[in-house]
Structures are given as C-alpha cells and as structure tokens.
Amino acid sequence: MSVDVIRARALDGVAHGFLGRRGGVSEGLFASLDLGRRSQEVDGWITENRRRAIAAVAPGAALCTVYQVHSAEVVTVGDAYPHEARPRADALVTDRPGLLLGILTADCAPVLFADRQAGVVGAAHAGWKGALAGVTDATIAAMERLGARRTSIVAAIGPCIARASYEVDDGFVATFTGPDPANERFFAPGRAGHHQFDLEAYVAHRLAAAGLTRIAALGLDTYVDAPRFFSFRRATHRGEADYGRQISLIAAD
Fold it and tell me: CA nearest 208: which of 144, 154, 127, 145?
C-alpha cells in the first residue's frame, strides 16, 4: 500500500502533504506509517517510515521536526539537524530549499503555511493549548521575519479531531471564554455539563484574525476514521496502551 498523501488545493505548487497512517511498516497499534519515535521501535520502523514520508512529498529533502510541547514556540530553521537534536517547540519556518518541515499529530490540528512569492514556508502543531496560546500567530510572525508578507501567506488546516468527536467539560469552555467571551461560538451543546469543541473552526478563526485571507480547512476527522488516521482520544476511549502519530510536511522551493 502506498503512502496516503492528502494535499490542499490552496497549497498547489508547494511540496506538501498531510500524511495518513497508510503506507508504512510499523505494526499493531502503530500500523502502519507511525512517525512517533518511542522506545519500543522495532526493526527500524520509524527510520523506514521517515524515509517513506520524505520520498512521498519531497524526495531528497532533509526532514526537520521539533520536540512538541503544546506551546507557541517557533523555530526558524536555517540548516538541517539530527532528529536527536530537535528543539522543544511546536512550529517551524524556513526559507531554505532542501529542507522539509514536519509536524506530528494524533487529533491536534496540523497547519501548513506558504508564501510562494517569498519562498517561505511554515508548519505548526495546534492542539488546544498551543492554539489558544497563539502558535499560529507566532508562526506567521516568524515567516514575516524571513520576508513573507501576511497578505500573501496561504494556510491549510489538516486532519484533526472534529467537533462531533471532541467532548469537553465546563472548565475547558471557561478556559476559552474567559479571555474572550466570543469564543463560546466554537462550542456546541452536549450532554449535561459537557460541550463539543470545534478545534478546526477555532484555528481557522485565529488565522483569519491574524490577517490571512486564504485559509483552507480539510474537514477530516481523525477520531472517526481509524483506517486512515491515528487518534489519541480514540485510543484512550478504547483503552489502548499507546497510539501512533501521523506527520504533515511542507518544503521550501
């Protein structure tokens, strides 16, 4: 089975892809294109999966990722670095050809950015904590420091957990509505004391509020599509011991 590469029409002309879980070599709970490096790696699963992911999107490029911590920290990448030396952050930007930026997710929203004219790209991991803290705003600002123009940046939000699958409690809602009561619109009523959170819509709102005018949301729910995507929340609900991570990639020309 070939690697499942989902592309956003808004990013046509830019080497990119939101990869699903198909087309790799890992097995069991991690079948088959798991990119989350962990101690139980067997027979080079992750190494081979990384090779396949790179080949599917930007053959020959050097893959750069970060040690994700649900923050608004952004790294500007000037040169390739080994996986073991990856910095603690949740977004990357670059203007260097030959570099491939990667973000891992398993329900959080992956966001890919590009200013084709400036030759600047970015990738952000937007879980609810990072999204609320402003990881997408920080990514846009970092791209501008490399010469991108906010009015020229295109962003695409990849597969993430959808509102129908994302139940939260009253305290979670207060975390969002405290700073801005208007954020209530991203929550739909649920069972008593609970609500359904629309992470994708919230991220799109943050991108629009930052001044981006071209935003694509793919509308793909990681939770409900087990054959195609890994999902932390689905694994938790099933009582599984662990879960895999898919990768989203973008490269500068």
Answer: 154
